[in-house]
Amino acid sequence: MFTFELPEIGEGVVEGEIVRWLVKEGDVITPDQPLCEVMTDKATVEISTPRGGLVQKLHGEEGDVIAVHTPLADINESGAGAAPAKAPAPVAAAPVAAAPVAAPVAAAPAPVVTPAPAVPRSGKTLATPAIRSHARSMGVDIEAIAGSGKAGRVTRSDIDAAAHAAPSAPADTTPHLKAPTALPAPAVSPLAVRADQHIKIIGLRRKIAEQMVKSYRTAPHFTYVDEVDATELVALRSSLKAAAAARGVKLTYLPFIMKALVLAFTEFPTINALIDEESFTLTARGEVNIGIATDSPQGLYVPVIKNVESKSILELAAEIADVTGRTRAGRPQLSDLKGGTFTVTSVGNIGGRFATPIINHPEVAILGVNQIHDRPMVINGEVVARKMMYLSPSFDHRVIDGAVAARFVSALKAILENPTSLLLELR
Questions:
Q1: Confidence (pTM)
Q2: Active site residue 401
Q3: Is 396 among the residues known to form the active site?
């Protein structure tokens, strides 16, 4: 009997949470086959077995946090053809980050590619643990894929092709008899009682919860709301959309807001800042690295756009589409999720007028961007329709006073209401 223990996953990592078992007791497994997914503070990793055999016992349940070198599985090597042992190979999957919810930013659609037809196989599908993880993240049944690699091994391109294929349903040529007149369906109360559902909070959702609690307990939050007349901003974006599209870039409002933040930070540097709890020191950052809270099927991530101050609006638009697209597809790099100095969260395309976002600690502020909507406003004594939008930033009251926050939002509002000044910011 071979007892496989949780290996050392990375430097400084002493424990991990079992997010998902990929095998069950009684399964016959082969060397290098993934056993489970384990989440640490740094990443979600896939743990593979170094030996094959019969899975006699699994130690722990999904959601359990276990220490490195704790038993994971008992493998009866006589239960199947044992193969020579190999070193365990944890494979990094999607990195972890937690922050407030934001509406997804659309990425350019992938081209449709028809995959190679699947062929029957008598043995196990050949694929690395990373490719198997990629197949699960894309919702592809890897057992139905005909591998194009050496010896029939499934490759990443095989998975991507299958994920983006659009299979057409065969025509229904079966003759149908005319159905008899249907009897009235029995009345069903729309308020029928349903059974309770018990959902265990594990994985990324647990990490988000821990981060939110830490932030809210550590920093005394306050939110300041102001409305912005976005009529000129809407017009400017509309006038530039075609030129951006000609270069293959989808132009959203976020690049304009990010460049406006850069200008506002020059006057209010302590808002683009990080706080060190141990030394209780505030560091006003020279770089402007803005995190974009991004909703994804895997959970909530905050990919960071680095050095916003040195990039044009068009460059920012392209980078936002790239990094948020990869994040929603479950393929962010760990470097994408580090180094933020300020966060923007937007739910404008979902609805609502304003929110009270939670700060992405150790940052000291976060900007909530909300829906742009038509409202009657009084301009020069006349009632006219204008494009109005609320900004709802939250601040750490330990280091940012209410008056400073109000002046910062007023400065940001003035820039967004006169956005042509942003065109002067070529970098």
A1: 0.66
A2: yes
A3: no
